[in-house]
């Protein structure tokens, strides 16, 4: 027999019956302690360890050095671009463990592909997946946003040739 006045001495006595005897109070405390250990702490978002952050930073910098953009890395990782950029630049102080794991998966995925490839736009059609990036020193690369001297010269040459052809066809 328990020392509980209502004869329970468990969670039901404390929670449903309102008993505050020592046995019912001990039962609810034990339940809460176990709940915190098993459920609450397991759901908590864990920060990555310093060595994991260093590895992820090296992986992002390697992928960027191979020609991948942070947007493509983020797409491959299944996360947004902001944490990838922060980890790559070293400004992320406490990224989540899941973010670091996603970057590691993206690193494994992207290093097995051609580093000069980029993802085709969604409107490109059914069979389009990955297409090669334009080469440096071409009008296509200038049109893609590169403003280096080689690409700029190629664009000027392209427009000059186009103007010459238009003059020849008009005459």
Structural class: mainly alpha
Largest sheet data? 2 strands, antiparallel
Strand adjacency order, main sheet? 1-2
Task: Label the overall shape.
Answer: rod-shaped
Strand content: under 5%
Count of helix runs: 8
Low-confidence stretches: 120-129
Give the arrangement of secondary structure elements.
Layout lengths: L10 H5 L6 H22 L6 H16 L4 H8 L3 H9 L7 H15 L5 E3 L10 E3 L6 H5 L5 H22 L1
Antiparallel strand pairs: 1-2
Helix pairs in contact: 3-5, 3-6, 4-5, 4-6
Which key terms come to mind for this protein?
171 residues; 2 strands; 8 helices; two-stranded antiparallel ribbon
Could you characterize the architecture of this molecule?
The chain is mostly helical. It contains eight helices and two strands, in the order ααααααββαα. The protein has a two-stranded antiparallel sheet with strand order 1-2. Helix 3 crosses helix 5 (81-89). The longest helix has 22 residues, at 22-43. Mean pLDDT is 80; it is low at 120-129.
Summarize this entry quickly.
Helix content is 60%, strand content 4%. The chain has 171 residues and is mostly helical.
